[in-house]
Amino acid sequence: MSDRPKAHAVSLEYTLGELAGIVGGELHGDASVRIDGLATLQKATSSQASFLANPAYQKHLADCQAGVVLLKSAQSELCPVNCIVLDNPYAGYARLTQLFDPVKPCSPGIHPQAVIHPDASVSSLAQIDAFAVIEADAVVEDGAIIGSHCFIGRNTIIGKDCRLYPNVTLYHGVVLGRDVTLHSSCVIGGDGFGFAPENGRWVKIAQLGGVIIGDRSEIGANTNIDRGALDDTVIGSDVIIDSQVQIAHNVKIGDGTAIAGCVGIAGSSSIGRYCLIGGASNIAGHLTICDGVTLNMTTNVTGDIREPGHYSSGTGMSDMRSWRKNAVRFNQLDSLAKRMSKIEKSLSLPAVKQKT
C-alpha cells in the first residue's frame, strides 16, 4: 500500500504569528514557527497544528507533539507545546482547514465539451467544466464553478462564487444566492409529490413554483429539494444541509439552520432560524417550528413547535429481549391509565391529569 502514487498537493506554510492573526487568538509561544498542515492531538507533528475543543480529548494533550494547539485559556497551562488561546477553538480549527484545503479556486473559462444554449448568460469569470449543460435564459455569475456533467435548467440563476460539484442537477426556475455550495448528485427543483385522487387514479398537479436558496448555504450529496406547487420552496442564507435529505415542496427554512443526514421534511412545513435538526428526524407536513429549536436524532415531529428548546421522541437502544417486553407494555399504557383512573376514583384520590 505504501507504493501507491499520491496526488500532487500544493505545499503551503504559515507562521504561528500569521495563524494567530487569522483565527483571532492569543499566541503563547514562538511566532516564527512554521506550520504546513493539520492533524489530531495524537498524530500531529512539530510542523502541524491541532486543536482541543472536546474535553474528552484533553487526556491526549500532555503527550502532544504538535507545532501548535488551538485551545481555551483554561487549558493553556496544561499544553506542553505552542498554543493559540481563543474562546472557540473549534471555529478556529474550521478557519485553518480552509487554508490547507486542496480544492482549487475558480479557473475562468468554458470547456469546449460543455453545452451552453446561445440564450444563456454565462460570465467570462465563471468556470464551466466538460459536459456541463446550461439551458436557455439561465444565468451564471462571476466566480461560479459548474462541475462536469452538471445540468442547469432554463431560467435558473447561479449567483456569484457558487460551486456546483459534478453531476448536480438544477431544474428550471431555481435561484442560488451568492457563495452557495452544492455537492454531487443533489437535485434542486424537481417536482413536489403532488397528485389529486380521482376515480381510483392519480391526477398530477403541475408544480408551478421554484426554489430559492440564500447566500452561503451548503447542500450535501444526494439531497433533494423539491420546487413549490404554487409558491417557491425557500431555503434561507447560511443554511447547512447534510447528504440524503428530502425537502418537499413549499417548505421554508430560516437562516442559519443546520439539518443532518437522512432527514425528511414534508410539504408546506416552515422551520425557523438557527434550528438544529438531528439525523433521521421526520417532520410532518403543514407544520410550523419556531426559531431556536433543536431536534435530537430520529425525532418525529407531528405538531407545531412554538417554544424554543430541545425536543426528542422515541426510545433509546436496548437489547431485543428488553425491547420486545417494552413494546408490549407501551401498547398497554392506555388501558393501565384507565385502570388507574378507576382506582383513584374509588379511593377518592385526585385524578392525574393526562396530557393529550
Domain count, please report it: 2
The averaged pLDDT comes out at 94
Q: CATH-wise, what's the superfamily of the largest domain?
A: Hexapeptide repeat proteins
Query: Could you name the ranges where pLDDT drops below 50 across 5 or more consecutive residues?
Result: 1-10
Oligomer: single chain
Helix content: 10-25%
Task: Fill in the CATH topology of the largest domain.
Answer: UDP N-Acetylglucosamine Acyltransferase, domain 1
Shape: flat
How large is the radius of gyration? Answer: 26 Å
Second-tier CATH architecture of the largest domain: 3 Solenoid
What is the SS-derived class?
alpha/beta
Give the strand order, joined by hyphens, for the main sheet: 8-11-14-17-20-25-28-31-34-37-39
* Number of DSSP E strands: 39
Strand content: 25-35%
Give the helix tally: 3
Give me some keywords for this one.
356 residues, alpha/beta, UDP N-Acetylglucosamine Acyltransferase, domain 1, 2 domains, eleven-stranded parallel beta sheet, ten-stranded parallel beta sheet, 39 strands, disordered N terminus
Architecture overview:
This protein is α/β, with parallel strands linked by helices and 356 residues long. It folds into two domains: 14-99, 3-Layer(aba) Sandwich (Udp-n-acetylmuramoylalanyl-d-glutamate--2,6- Diaminopimelate Ligase, Chain: A, domain 1), CATH 3.40.1390; 109-311, UDP N-Acetylglucosamine Acyltransferase, domain 1, CATH 2.160.10.10. The chain is 13% helix and 27% strand. The chain has three helices and 39 strands. The protein has an eleven-stranded parallel sheet, with no helix packed on it. The protein has a ten-stranded parallel sheet with strand order 9-12-15-18-21-26-29-32-35-38, with no helix packed on it. The radius of gyration is 26 Å and the shape is flat. The chain starts with 13 loop residues before the first strand and ends in a 10-residue tail after the last helix.
